[in-house]
């Protein structure tokens, strides 16, 4: 299996605050990769670096073998133009904690938007595909609803369908269930589980340890901007080696 | 005080707890203030009706050709100045928010200058700019003396439009800033460019914040056009004043102009209302009722008020 995402000594600072202090990891193609850790540990920031919503300060970050945000010629790095970054982002779907659906568009329009505007797909084709995707996330009957008329769980599932509409090769989930009522979490996790079974490469920042254990192929525990422990989810979650991991898990499990 | 009324409109009253029947609090202060207000109003109306004003002159001249021409010019000036204002305002707002320090400083300076000086002064300055620029020379395209180039119409248009751009810039900036940053991020994450994000995602949402104050600006602009009578442009006020001087009914013509302004601002207000409704889509679970729907609902509730059940309109 090839590496979909590869990080080598990734550093990121916001002003004087160093959020990522050298991250090394590898996400294989087709695997579900879970990132856990306390808030402020840098896991969301790392996720946002992968599609260049944040610029890294040092190290190298590759997606599908290509540098993120830069082009290397000889030993010189050239920053990519905004339009080049945008092209690379087409292949990376992202799902946000706060959904970030477009509130002035209906569910189906949200899903159609990027294929029509970015890929130039015809509206008719895009609509048909959008309806299929909404059906896949169990919301075929909500196609004409505006986000404000949907529950949090429904909004998040529309957001997943919106990301899938671009046929990404990698999906990033930034705490997708953290803003949801507990009883709505299950529906979203079901959709993600279904997606994992279809072979999608997924990086999931989550506090859902049950999901990580059941669906995850790899798991990384981050704290203070570094990777503390990594391995197979079942091993790390049931038999953590580091003190820090143990104390974190004892609080959340 | 309000009594909680059971909202289920069944034919038989539900066998729930007995509804409270209490004597409402009497608001004697309200009766007194209402009587005082009506008395004052009657006094004012009476005073005007007894004054030396020839009310008959107003309908005589209401549809006079010169007045209608003035109304047309006022409307034309309003629309064109607002157009300059909105286009300029959007440009200035984007410049102001840009990361380039030069463009954002220029935008800041423009807004500072045009908001900081009275529009009447700006109009007169434009009119007299021939002191600075004797000729206008656009290379092979156009060359003329400033006083010939700067007609009253162009003076009025530039004076009002450029001033308006400064105000519109602040309104647009507030609108653009009101859109959650997550929207931009989501759009970028989908691979949309800056321009597409702005056009498809940010601006449509900013419009909800931009439209109401812009409506006010249009109404303000309509009234502000009366200032351009000082640069000899024959808009509504000037037309009314001219007629007033020749017909010997100057005060009456001012009332006539006021009536026309009121009529036009009222029409604009209605347009603004429907525009706001359009941009409010998706923002709330149900849109507010249109005036027509409200009137219908009021009529229904009035007609059903006599009945003991009390209809829910």
From TrEMBL, chain A:
Taking every annotated instance into account, which residue ranges of this chain make up the domain ABC transporter? 5-249
Q: Which GO terms describe its cellular component?
A: plasma membrane
User: What Gene Ontology molecular function terms does this protein carry?
Assistant: ATP binding; ATP hydrolysis activity; ATPase-coupled polar amino acid-transporter activity
User: For this protein, what reaction is catalysed?
Assistant: a polar amino acid(out) + ATP + H2O = a polar amino acid(in) + ADP + phosphate + H(+)
Known EC number:
7.4.2.1
Entry's InterPro entries? AAA+_ATPase, ABC_ATPase_HisP-typ, ABC_transporter-like_ATP-bd, ABC_transporter-like_CS, MetN_ABC_transporter-like, P-loop_NTPase
Superkingdom as given in the UniProt entry:
Bacteria
Compartments it resides in: Cell membrane
**Which membrane topology describes this protein?**
Peripheral membrane protein
Q: Which UniProt keywords apply?
A: Amino-acid transport, ATP-binding, Cell membrane, Membrane, Nucleotide-binding, Transport
What does the similarity note say? Belongs to the ABC transporter superfamily.
Its recorded name reads ABC-type polar-amino-acid transporter
Q: Species name for this entry?
A: Streptomyces swartbergensis
UniProtKB/TrEMBL annotation, chain B:
Record-level Gene Ontology MF annotations: transmembrane transporter activity
Transmembrane regions = 31-49, 75-95, 107-129, 253-275
What Gene3D superfamilies does the record tag this protein with?
MetI-like
A single Gene Ontology biological process assigned to it is: amino acid transport
Tell me where in this chain the ABC transmembrane type-1 domain is found.
71-272
Membrane topology is: Multi-pass membrane protein
Against InterPro entries, the record matches this protein to:
AA_ABC_Transporter_Permease (IPR051322), AA_ABC_transptr_permease_3TM (IPR010065), MetI-like (IPR000515), MetI-like_sf (IPR035906)
GO cellular-component term (any): ATP-binding cassette (ABC) transporter complex
Q: Where in the cell is it found?
A: Cell membrane
Give UniProt keywords alphabetically: Amino-acid transport, Cell membrane, Membrane, Transmembrane, Transmembrane helix, Transport
Superkingdom of this protein's organism:
Bacteria
Q: How does it assemble?
A: The HisPMQJ complex is composed of two ATP-binding proteins (HisP), two transmembrane proteins (HisM and HisQ) and a solute-binding protein (HisJ). The HisPMQ-ArgT complex is composed of two ATP-binding proteins (HisP), two transmembrane proteins (HisM and HisQ) and a solute-binding protein (ArgT).
The Swiss-Prot or TrEMBL record describes its family as follows: Belongs to the binding-protein-dependent transport system permease family.
Name the UniProt record assigns to this protein: Histidine/lysine/arginine/ornithine transport system permease protein HisM
């Amino acid at each position: 299996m090839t590496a979909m995402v590869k990080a080598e000594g990734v550093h990121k600072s916001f002003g004087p605050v160093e959020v990522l202090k050298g991250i090394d990891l590898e996400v294989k193609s087709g695997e579900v990769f879970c990132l856990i850790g306390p808030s402020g540990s840098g896991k969301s920031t790392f996720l946002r670096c992968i599609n260049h919503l944040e610029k890294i300060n040092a190290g190298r970050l590759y997606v599908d073998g290509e540098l993120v945000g830069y082009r290397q010629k000889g030993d010189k790095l050239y920053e990519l133009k905004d339009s080049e970054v945008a092209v690379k982002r087409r292949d990376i779907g992202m799902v946000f904690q706060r959904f970030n659906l477009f509130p002035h568009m209906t569910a189906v329009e949200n899903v159609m938007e990027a294929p029509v505007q970015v890929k130039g797909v015809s509206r008719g084709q895009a609509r048909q595909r959008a309806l299929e995707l909404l059906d896949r996330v169990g919301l075929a009957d909500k196609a004409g609803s505006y986000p404000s008329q949907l529950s949090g769980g429904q909004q998040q599932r529309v957001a997943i369908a919106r990301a899938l509409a671009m046929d990404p090769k990698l999906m990033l989930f930034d705490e997708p269930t953290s803003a949801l009522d507990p009883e709505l979490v299950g529906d979203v996790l079901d959709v993600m589980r279904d997606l994992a079974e279809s072979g999608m490469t997924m990086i999931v920042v989550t506090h859902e340890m049950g999901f990580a254990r059941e669906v995850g192929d790899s798991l990384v525990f981050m704290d203070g901007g570094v990777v503390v422990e990594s391995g197979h989810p079942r091993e790390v979650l049931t038999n953590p080696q580091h003190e820090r991991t143990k104390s974190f898990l004892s609080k959340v499990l | 005080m309000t009594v909680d009324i059971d909202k289920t409109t069944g034919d038989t009253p539900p066998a729930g707890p007995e509804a409270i029947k209490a004597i409402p609090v009497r608001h004697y202060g309200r009766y007194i203030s209402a009587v005082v207000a009506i008395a004052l109003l009657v006094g004012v109306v009476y005073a005007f009706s007894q004054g030396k004003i020839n009310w008959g002159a107003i309908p005589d001249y209401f549809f006079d050709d010169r007045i209608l021409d003035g109304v047309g010019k006022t409307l034309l000036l309003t629309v064109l100045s607002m157009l300059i204002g909105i286009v300029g305002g959007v440009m200035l707002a984007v410049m102001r928010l840009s990361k380039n320090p030069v463009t954002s400083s220029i935008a800041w300076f423009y807004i500072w200058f045009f908001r900081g000086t009275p529009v009447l002064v700006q109009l007169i300055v434009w009119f007299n700019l021939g002191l600075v620029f004797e000729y206008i020379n656009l290379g092979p395209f156009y060359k003329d003396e400033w006083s010939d180039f700067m007609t009253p119409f162009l003076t009025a248009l530039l004076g009002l439009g450029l001033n308006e751009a400064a105000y519109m810039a602040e309104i647009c900036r507030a609108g653009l800033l009101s859109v959650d940053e997550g929207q931009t991020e989501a759009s970028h994450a989908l691979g949309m460019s800056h321009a597409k994000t702005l056009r498809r995602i940010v601006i449509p949402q900013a419009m909800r914040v931009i439209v109401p104050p812009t409506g006010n600006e249009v109404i303000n602009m309509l009234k502000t056009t009366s200032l351009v009578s000082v640069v000899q442009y024959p808009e509504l006020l000037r037309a009314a004043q001219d007629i007033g001087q020749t017909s010997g009914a100057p005060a009456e013509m001012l009332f006539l102009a006021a009536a026309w302004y009121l009529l036009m601002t009222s029409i604009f207000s209605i347009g603004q209302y429907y525009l706001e409704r359009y941009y409010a889509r998706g923002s709330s679970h149900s849109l507010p009722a249109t005036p027509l729907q409200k009137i219908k609902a009021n009529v229904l509730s009035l007609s059903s008020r006599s009945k003991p059940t009390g209809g829910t309109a």
